[in-house]
Amino acid sequence: MQTASANICERLCNKSIREISLLLNIPRSTVSGIIKMWKQLGTTATQPLSGRSHKMTERGQRMLKHTVRRSCQLSAESIAKYLQTLCGLQISTTVSRRLHGMGFHG
Predict the structure, then answer these.
(1) Which tens digit of pLDDT belongs to each residue from 2-18?
(2) Which domain of life is it from (predicted)?
(3) What's the DSSP call for residue 55?
(4) Rounded to whole angstroms, how far apart are CA atoms 96 and 43?
């Protein structure tokens, strides 16, 4: 797949969005979105994501899963305390949400 700047260069050479799409073998909606972004922002770089990043990393999630599989009778509070002492994660309600998202219920 070509870069976004290649799409803009093609557009500047008086090619239609359809022709650019066929030349680069990418969807027309992608081409038009990139051209629109270029006109509005003057660049094709993506903007930073809005919102807060996740408190628990992938490693923390793996540790949580391992802890629950090893001792499934623990409460969410005790799991949170265990993870806090083990790796310094200060999470409380996140534990139950993450477990729910991983398919652990009850």
Answers:
(1) 566 665 665 666 788 88
(2) Eukaryota
(3) S
(4) 41
